[in-house]
Records
---
Amino acid sequence: MAEVILTVNTEIGIKVEADVITPDTFAGKNKSEIESLLVWQGPKEFPLSSFFDVEGDAGSSAEETSIVVKGDTSRVKRIGEKMTAGKITVEGSVSMHVGSQMEGGELLVKGDADSWAGMEMKGGLLHIEGNARDHVGCAYRGKWVGMSGGRIVVDGNANNNLGGGISGGEIIVGGNVGHYCGIRQNGGLIAVKGNAIRAVAAEMTAGTMVVNGTIERFSPGFEYVTNESDLKFDDIECPGNFKKFLGDNAITKRPKGTLYVNQAANMDL
Amino acid sequence: MAGTIVIKNGSVYDPLNEVNGDKQDIFIKNGKVVSELSDADMKDAKVIDATGKTVMPGGVDSHSHIAGAKVNVGRMMRPEDGYKATMTKTDITHSGSGETVPSVYMEGYEYSQMGYTTVFEAAVPPMEARHTHEEMRSIPMLDMGGYLVLGNNWFMMRYLKEGDIDKAAAYVSWMMKTHKTYGIKCVNPAGVENWGWGKNVSSLDEANIHFEVTPREMIDGLTEVNEMLGMPMSMHLHANNLGHPGNFETTKESLKMSKNVKAKQDMGVEWAETKIDPSRDQSVYLTHMMFNAFGGTSWRDFESGVKPLTDYINSTDHIVIDSGCVPFGEATCMTGDGPSIHDLSVLTGGKWSNTDVELECGSGVCPFTYLKSNPVHSTQWAMGLECLLLIDDPWKAIMTTDSPNGGPFTKYPLVMSWLMSEKFRDQTFSECHPWANDRSTLGGVDREMSLYDIAIMTRANTSKTIGMAHRKGSFGIGADGDVTIYDIDPSKIDTREYSDLINKFSTAEYTVKDGQIVCHNGEITMIPEKRTYYTDASVPDANEKEMLKDVQEWFRYYSHGFNHYPTPEKYLMNPTAIKVNAEQ
């Protein structure tokens, strides 16, 4: 696998729209071709080399290409957008839309991610080792269907609207989530190891959500069914005792959404 | 010389002059069609060789929602619409975005790319007229006008209930001048007023609350006023119970009502010379018929109710309709029929916006997606085409999608191709739900429309129906020099190659407006001057005075002052009044 190393070479003011940083765009290009790819900064376009030093040539295809991004990328948006194969490793934090509409391959962020990480993702793996902000794996504003395939792993906390409109794929959060986790979920799996605030799985029609911590304000449209313990969904394991609910009855008369809530952490339910 | 052009040797389709594909030259001087050009003129004239191409008058859309408050609400409600279609700026054009509710500039460019030069906005709430005009003036490329919504207007309901037809006429003429609008639109008459209390009316003889006026009285009254004033276009009717299974019965009854009302168009304009009488024959123009032609009693036994309606239309001469076709895909439903949009959002769980325009009307907006896999949607697709194919005489029909309700206007090329190609219809049948075939009669129709029929339904008849035939929709001497040249050779047309037809209709080779090439193979080449038409009807001064007394008295119910009510001319691009005289 050919490796291309991008290193930030300047202080980035206005955020840079770097949707060209994908194995798909780099594939078949040598160092100088990669350097001359254009990115937007505000109303102007600049070559990638204005912001990054480039080392190495890309592989012949996206599968054969691995990209490593170094330096302060916290003002670089849209890394890995629509990527279908290959690998990207970002050694720091990223700005908005990382891995958004991603279809395949692997994207590893070793720092934090801003909002819209993995928005409407279709496949592949997006792993954020730090925290993520709002709209992880969510539908774009106004749209109904969010993430439909692939996997997003957030080791830290995520903020509001995680997995909004998710219809397939998995989101696993190691820490806590904010408001509206899994709003309008109609498929897929969301597993939260930590706590959630309110409107969890609101307007859910199908799919599965597991919350291992405490839900501060439980959504009113969910009906208790039974207790289950030590859940397992393929390779995802959720040990412990869970109360199983079906919902959201506020939206449909025969809801197929399943919400598991840790019994010990939610004694009042 | 600006606006001087010769289009040579094309196959010309000009139904108002009974020209059916004949090889003819079209001469345009200073923006108007002339019989020939002198040698001196020829020197400066632009010449287009249209050998082997189809030449039609510029497209005229008589019913589209592209300006005004509810279109804007649609844009705000649908941020996701913005990134589905985008247009980058050029030296002369603006950038734009949006698929079903594009930005104003993009609307003008997209219509022009399809060969259209004239579009009428189908619903202008009086209080929103000023805003609507502001948007219309920003839409480039197109001559425009708007229809004023009057079917639930407090003054109209009051006057028609009292039977005071003179005051009603005085009010309409004053409102047209005040808001610089063109014709009367009537949406769910008497029903939208009830919507203010969460209700609707369900039959033509059900009186609404407070005003105690029935839909029948409103339709009757508005039609009578329309002809009394001699308005350019017929009363434009969006019938009651729209979108409800079984509503074709209401529609049929509504259509019968105007049977004895004679059309009396009375316009003081210079008419282009045409072979066929270009003045309108009908007193009622029913819009988006598909949505008013639902059969069955519920969504389970839903079926097409188009056949009984088209049977009636075929047997009589007093109705003209537009279809409201459904070309599948994304749509944004928007109408002055507030209750019907509420029903839709309950049905789909879709986003919903709703407005009460104080004293005047209401409206609602709800995004919608028509799916081939959905039984009802697929039947609606078939019904829209039935509305056009089952009416024998194309002079009674107009092709629309009620853009963006059935689908955006950019899908007109699909509809035209379905009309022309049985193979394309068969192909679509094979892709969509069996209900389309089982619950409509479209499958048994082998009619394939000709380019002549298409020219009638998108140009000649639209102009005639809305009273624009004195300058649009024909190549009569004196008509506006608006031309569409499609790269379609009528002698080699093969309707089995429908994807070719779709492409050719989507991008006209040339769009000519006022004798200038404004669009060439999809590229906007210049931004022409545009005009806004409105009707300047007059009634006896005494009647107007009496009526204004009432208006000023009732204006205390409005939340703003009387002086802020009118739309000044400066809000219009090249305001063009059409004089209508009721005194003679």
---
Amino acid sequence: MSKGVLVDITRCVGCGSCEVACKMWNNLQYKQSVQDQGSGLDAENWTVVNRVETEKDNEPVWRFVKYQCLHCEEPACVSACFSKAIRKTKDGPVVYDVNLCVGCRYCMLVCPFNVPKYEWDKTFPQVRKCQMCADRVHAGESPACVGVCPAGALTYGERNNLLAMAKEKINGDSRYIKHVYGEKEAGGTSWLYISDIPFETLGFRTNITTTPLPHYTESILGLTPAVGLGWGALLTGMYVYNRRRNEINREEKKPGKK
Amino acid sequence: MAVSNRWRFTMTPTRYVLMVLGLVGVLLMVYRLVFGLGSSTNLNDEWPWGLWIGFDVLTGVALAGGGYSTALLVHIMGIKKFSPIARSAMLTSLIGYLLVMAGLFMDIGRWFNFWRPFVSWGYHSVLFEVFWCVSLYTMIQLLEFGEVATEKVQKRWHGFFKKIMPVLLIIGVLLPTLHQSSLGSLYVMEVGKLYPLWWSMLLPIFFLMSSFFVGPAMVTVETMLGARAHGHRPDLGVLQSLIKVSGYMMLVYLALKVGDLVYRGATGLVFTGNMEGNMFLLEMLIGVIIPIIICFTPKLRNSVGGLVTFGVLVVAGVIINRMNVVFTGMADFMGGAYFPSVIEWLVSIGLLAIGVLGYLFIVENFNVLPKHKHEHSHAPTPNVVVKGKKAVKYSA
């Protein structure tokens, strides 16, 4: 069954351990400027913790939002990749194989969460994003970030169980927003979020379609063979008909011409 | 129709300029391939697709649509009166596609891997269909040009090329129909990201239709330019009938566009006065509504000025449309900023210059344009006596 992670935003203290663990496990460069601000994902930052200053019950509050690839159940990037460089493993992680990548960057364009980033400073750049520590997950361990979280904000497990746990939590505690982010967004994601502050305030994209994105293009691509064959047959028919008609015309004209 | 065996390419000041531009373009392309996208373009994580995809590829493929629409009208539907423009339209299309391939090659980050999709089939991707169709269609067009080329070089192959033309022509209309629409399908995945004035499940149909009706417009512009350059009078009658094909298609396009906006409840967005709304209005007014008026007002359609205006407006309209889909419509969601770098501009301009030079060279050395009374005086082989407008006989 597919694994996932449940993020409880109310418990995150913004320590950044997960960022450090991610960098250590994946050998990512450490850049001081970005690290301080938590200002967004890039080729060397596969996960960031963003600080959001907002209000709750007319009191100013801070919330810390860990962000990374959400590992969609039916990922747009996988469906968009024309050389199969991105695929979803059966454990859940959406992983990237540089050997197959052409570098078209269509995955970056279609991701509803704006996750994949690029090594713009390299001659032969790679697409970079959280791989959900696929090798660890495959070996039955949790992703590196989950393992180090000291605040209990991250829970790793079967996605189904996590979803049930999330629902139990938000329904049993009046502080929570009654919405599990990632349950239905873009058709569902392996990473799930619960929060006491509305998700749009925290910088989440909330108007995402609940239809899995690949379904949009599959419905069109599915028509291709039929359209191709039908149109091909029609073209051939027209061609043959018109050639025959022209031949007849020529035959009829012949006597007068000579 | 025999063709002179000598090769010629007269250099004019314009051509020197084009050559310099082309050379600069080539040098910068080498620079880009060696030093990477980041150091030669202004692309970034917010704007992974820029000028090269938006203009060189998406717009280029549409503008090169003149080839398949003409092939359909002349060779498949057998409308003989359009045949004088067939070869030139198909040549422009071939050159257009070669430029698109070059632009695409510039834009892919790991270019040594360009062949991957031929063996690693990501068939659920729209881009897969685009990639296969565009590469195959370019091949087909090269073969189609074989028929023209073998009139001059490798003449013993001519019979062979004539024989396979029917198959090539049919595939050569089929493939573009599929990938012109797929280019639109690329943006169907941008649901919720692309501004609702442009995002629609009908995107593939819109892209297909506009690539078809821009064909005659391109042919018109090109014929007029060619006529001026070579000092002969263009056959206005052919162009007038040709743009009517566009006109009817544009009426359907306009109706579909409006219907689609009403159906999706997006009509209100047209007149909000924001950037997106205004650009949409501009695109529809310049590229569709005014041309339709010109097309269906006989006085305008029958004048040279009217024809040129029609051609230029429709081409501009399609360019604006593709730019709107790639940039204007995505800007709100993407955030960040992108404006093409000097290198991006110069590479695009350089490619265009090379295309124009290539077209001129082929037109001067092969039998592409219909021969007119004001034919150049350089002596053709004696057995050719051509007078009158139906001089050139087209095969297939």
